[in-house]
Write a structure and sequence with these properties.
Layout (H helix, E strand, L loop, with lengths): L2 E4 L5 H13 L5 H11 L5 H4 L3 E4 L5 E5 L2 E3 L2 E3 L3 E3 L8 H16 L3 E6 L4 H6 L3 E2 L11 H4 L2 E5 L6 H7 L4 E4 L1 H7 L18 H6 L3 E5 L8
Helix pairs in contact: 1-2
Length: 221
Protein backbone atom coordinates (compact mmCIF):
# COMPACT_ATOMS: atom_id res chain seq x y z
CA UNK A 1 0.00 0.00 0.00
CA UNK A 2 1.28 3.46 -0.86
CA UNK A 3 2.03 5.95 1.90
CA UNK A 4 2.05 9.73 1.61
CA UNK A 5 4.71 12.19 2.68
CA UNK A 6 5.58 15.81 2.04
CA UNK A 7 8.00 16.38 -0.84
CA UNK A 8 11.51 17.20 0.28
CA UNK A 9 13.68 20.08 -0.92
CA UNK A 10 15.98 18.84 -3.66
CA UNK A 11 13.45 16.43 -5.19
CA UNK A 12 12.29 18.80 -7.93
CA UNK A 13 14.32 17.19 -10.71
CA UNK A 14 13.30 13.63 -9.90
CA UNK A 15 9.66 14.62 -9.52
CA UNK A 16 9.70 16.43 -12.86
CA UNK A 17 10.99 13.22 -14.43
CA UNK A 18 8.03 11.33 -12.98
CA UNK A 19 5.61 13.94 -14.31
CA UNK A 20 7.01 13.71 -17.82
CA UNK A 21 6.99 9.88 -17.81
CA UNK A 22 3.38 9.93 -16.68
CA UNK A 23 2.42 12.41 -19.40
CA UNK A 24 4.25 10.38 -22.06
CA UNK A 25 2.39 7.25 -20.98
CA UNK A 26 -0.63 8.41 -22.99
CA UNK A 27 1.24 8.24 -26.28
CA UNK A 28 2.06 11.90 -26.89
CA UNK A 29 4.84 12.65 -29.32
CA UNK A 30 8.16 14.27 -28.51
CA UNK A 31 7.19 17.65 -29.97
CA UNK A 32 4.04 17.89 -27.86
CA UNK A 33 5.87 16.79 -24.70
CA UNK A 34 8.55 19.41 -25.33
CA UNK A 35 5.84 22.09 -25.61
CA UNK A 36 4.34 20.95 -22.31
CA UNK A 37 7.64 20.68 -20.46
CA UNK A 38 7.97 24.30 -19.25
CA UNK A 39 4.52 24.21 -17.61
CA UNK A 40 5.03 20.74 -16.16
CA UNK A 41 8.49 21.42 -14.76
CA UNK A 42 8.78 21.44 -10.98
CA UNK A 43 11.27 24.15 -10.07
CA UNK A 44 13.55 24.08 -7.02
CA UNK A 45 11.52 25.37 -4.10
CA UNK A 46 8.20 24.20 -5.59
CA UNK A 47 8.27 21.22 -3.25
CA UNK A 48 7.20 23.59 -0.45
CA UNK A 49 5.70 26.50 -2.39
CA UNK A 50 3.24 24.27 -4.26
CA UNK A 51 2.53 22.06 -1.23
CA UNK A 52 3.60 18.92 -3.10
CA UNK A 53 2.90 15.55 -1.51
CA UNK A 54 4.29 12.30 -2.88
CA UNK A 55 3.11 8.71 -2.61
CA UNK A 56 5.74 6.03 -2.17
CA UNK A 57 5.84 2.28 -1.73
CA UNK A 58 7.24 0.32 1.20
CA UNK A 59 10.72 0.45 -0.34
CA UNK A 60 10.64 4.25 -0.63
CA UNK A 61 10.14 4.40 -4.40
CA UNK A 62 8.04 7.39 -5.44
CA UNK A 63 4.82 6.31 -7.17
CA UNK A 64 3.09 9.63 -7.72
CA UNK A 65 2.69 13.23 -6.65
CA UNK A 66 0.10 15.96 -6.32
CA UNK A 67 0.28 19.70 -5.72
CA UNK A 68 -2.11 22.13 -4.06
CA UNK A 69 -1.51 25.51 -5.68
CA UNK A 70 -2.75 28.98 -4.85
CA UNK A 71 -4.21 30.59 -1.77
CA UNK A 72 -7.65 30.25 -0.16
CA UNK A 73 -10.44 30.42 -1.01
CA UNK A 74 -9.68 29.59 -4.69
CA UNK A 75 -6.91 27.17 -5.59
CA UNK A 76 -5.84 24.64 -8.14
CA UNK A 77 -4.94 20.99 -8.19
CA UNK A 78 -1.94 21.89 -10.28
CA UNK A 79 -0.30 18.49 -10.61
CA UNK A 80 -1.51 14.94 -10.12
CA UNK A 81 0.71 12.41 -11.84
CA UNK A 82 1.37 8.72 -11.23
CA UNK A 83 4.33 6.60 -12.33
CA UNK A 84 3.14 4.63 -15.40
CA UNK A 85 3.72 1.25 -13.76
CA UNK A 86 1.50 2.29 -10.82
CA UNK A 87 -1.43 3.70 -12.83
CA UNK A 88 -4.65 1.94 -11.91
CA UNK A 89 -3.39 0.84 -8.51
CA UNK A 90 -5.17 3.44 -6.38
CA UNK A 91 -2.28 5.90 -6.07
CA UNK A 92 -4.16 8.64 -7.91
CA UNK A 93 -7.21 8.23 -5.68
CA UNK A 94 -5.05 8.40 -2.57
CA UNK A 95 -3.37 11.60 -3.75
CA UNK A 96 -6.62 13.22 -4.92
CA UNK A 97 -8.36 12.62 -1.61
CA UNK A 98 -5.36 13.93 0.28
CA UNK A 99 -5.38 17.16 -1.74
CA UNK A 100 -9.07 17.69 -0.96
CA UNK A 101 -8.53 16.97 2.73
CA UNK A 102 -5.63 19.42 2.96
CA UNK A 103 -7.47 22.02 0.90
CA UNK A 104 -10.50 21.91 3.18
CA UNK A 105 -8.30 22.26 6.24
CA UNK A 106 -6.54 25.31 4.78
CA UNK A 107 -9.77 27.09 3.92
CA UNK A 108 -9.97 26.42 0.16
CA UNK A 109 -13.58 26.35 -0.99
CA UNK A 110 -13.00 25.73 -4.71
CA UNK A 111 -10.25 23.93 -6.61
CA UNK A 112 -9.77 24.14 -10.39
CA UNK A 113 -8.34 21.22 -12.34
CA UNK A 114 -6.96 21.15 -15.88
CA UNK A 115 -7.25 17.47 -16.74
CA UNK A 116 -5.47 15.58 -19.48
CA UNK A 117 -8.29 14.12 -21.61
CA UNK A 118 -7.14 10.61 -20.69
CA UNK A 119 -7.68 11.43 -17.00
CA UNK A 120 -11.11 13.04 -17.40
CA UNK A 121 -12.92 9.81 -16.48
CA UNK A 122 -10.90 9.60 -13.28
CA UNK A 123 -11.90 13.08 -12.16
CA UNK A 124 -15.55 12.47 -12.98
CA UNK A 125 -15.47 9.25 -10.99
CA UNK A 126 -13.94 11.15 -8.06
CA UNK A 127 -16.80 13.65 -8.07
CA UNK A 128 -15.29 16.64 -9.87
CA UNK A 129 -17.64 18.54 -12.17
CA UNK A 130 -17.01 20.21 -15.51
CA UNK A 131 -15.95 23.83 -15.08
CA UNK A 132 -16.32 26.95 -17.20
CA UNK A 133 -12.93 28.25 -16.08
CA UNK A 134 -10.60 29.83 -18.60
CA UNK A 135 -7.33 28.30 -19.85
CA UNK A 136 -4.90 27.27 -17.16
CA UNK A 137 -1.52 25.52 -17.09
CA UNK A 138 -0.41 24.03 -20.40
CA UNK A 139 -2.69 26.49 -22.20
CA UNK A 140 -0.18 26.81 -25.04
CA UNK A 141 -0.66 23.14 -25.81
CA UNK A 142 -4.41 23.01 -25.29
CA UNK A 143 -5.31 22.84 -28.95
CA UNK A 144 -3.61 19.47 -29.32
CA UNK A 145 -3.78 18.34 -25.69
CA UNK A 146 -7.50 18.96 -25.29
CA UNK A 147 -7.35 19.74 -21.56
CA UNK A 148 -10.67 19.26 -19.81
CA UNK A 149 -11.50 21.83 -17.10
CA UNK A 150 -13.00 20.54 -13.84
CA UNK A 151 -13.62 21.96 -10.42
CA UNK A 152 -14.36 20.57 -6.99
CA UNK A 153 -15.47 22.06 -3.68
CA UNK A 154 -13.45 20.64 -0.75
CA UNK A 155 -15.71 19.86 2.21
CA UNK A 156 -14.28 20.24 5.73
CA UNK A 157 -14.50 17.18 7.94
CA UNK A 158 -17.55 17.50 10.20
CA UNK A 159 -16.76 18.54 13.76
CA UNK A 160 -18.24 15.40 15.30
CA UNK A 161 -16.15 13.16 13.05
CA UNK A 162 -12.98 15.15 13.74
CA UNK A 163 -13.62 14.88 17.48
CA UNK A 164 -14.25 11.14 17.24
CA UNK A 165 -11.40 10.24 14.89
CA UNK A 166 -8.89 12.99 15.56
CA UNK A 167 -8.98 13.75 11.85
CA UNK A 168 -6.75 10.78 11.09
CA UNK A 169 -6.98 7.08 10.32
CA UNK A 170 -9.77 5.57 12.40
CA UNK A 171 -9.86 2.22 14.17
CA UNK A 172 -13.04 1.53 16.18
CA UNK A 173 -13.33 -1.47 18.45
CA UNK A 174 -16.34 -2.94 20.18
CA UNK A 175 -18.15 -0.96 22.78
CA UNK A 176 -19.35 2.00 20.72
CA UNK A 177 -22.07 -0.20 19.26
CA UNK A 178 -22.86 -1.75 22.64
CA UNK A 179 -23.17 1.68 24.21
CA UNK A 180 -25.61 2.93 21.61
CA UNK A 181 -27.66 -0.26 21.76
CA UNK A 182 -28.97 0.67 25.22
CA UNK A 183 -31.11 3.49 23.81
CA UNK A 184 -34.63 2.61 22.72
CA UNK A 185 -35.87 3.38 19.22
CA UNK A 186 -39.59 2.95 18.55
CA UNK A 187 -38.99 2.70 14.81
CA UNK A 188 -37.22 -0.66 15.17
CA UNK A 189 -38.80 -4.08 15.02
CA UNK A 190 -38.88 -6.14 18.21
CA UNK A 191 -35.90 -8.30 17.22
CA UNK A 192 -33.75 -5.28 16.34
CA UNK A 193 -31.50 -3.36 18.69
CA UNK A 194 -30.86 0.36 18.39
CA UNK A 195 -27.74 1.65 16.65
CA UNK A 196 -26.12 -1.76 16.56
CA UNK A 197 -23.69 -0.72 13.81
CA UNK A 198 -23.54 3.03 14.47
CA UNK A 199 -19.78 2.79 15.09
CA UNK A 200 -19.11 2.50 11.36
CA UNK A 201 -20.26 6.08 10.74
CA UNK A 202 -17.11 7.66 12.12
CA UNK A 203 -14.80 4.95 10.87
CA UNK A 204 -15.79 5.46 7.25
CA UNK A 205 -16.30 9.21 7.46
CA UNK A 206 -12.72 9.79 8.59
CA UNK A 207 -10.26 11.05 5.93
CA UNK A 208 -8.20 7.85 6.09
CA UNK A 209 -10.41 4.97 7.27
CA UNK A 210 -8.20 2.20 8.59
CA UNK A 211 -10.26 -0.53 10.23
CA UNK A 212 -13.56 -1.28 11.91
CA UNK A 213 -14.13 -4.11 14.38
CA UNK A 214 -17.74 -4.74 15.37
CA UNK A 215 -18.93 -6.67 18.45
CA UNK A 216 -21.35 -8.79 16.43
CA UNK A 217 -22.26 -9.55 12.81
CA UNK A 218 -24.19 -6.78 11.07
CA UNK A 219 -26.30 -6.70 7.91
CA UNK A 220 -24.28 -6.49 4.71
CA UNK A 221 -25.83 -3.13 3.77
Amino acid sequence: MAELRVARPGEAGALTGLVMRSKAHWGYGAEFLAACAPELRIAPGDEVRRRIVVAEDAAGAVLGLASLDGEPPLGRLGLLFVEPAAIGGGVGRLLYRDVLRRAAGLGFRRLLIDSDPHAAGFYRAMGAVTSVQGPGPESGAEASGGLVPFEVAPVPLAGWARAWTGGGAAVHIGNVAEYNAQFADASLDREQRAAHHYACLAAFYSPRPAALVLPRPVPAD
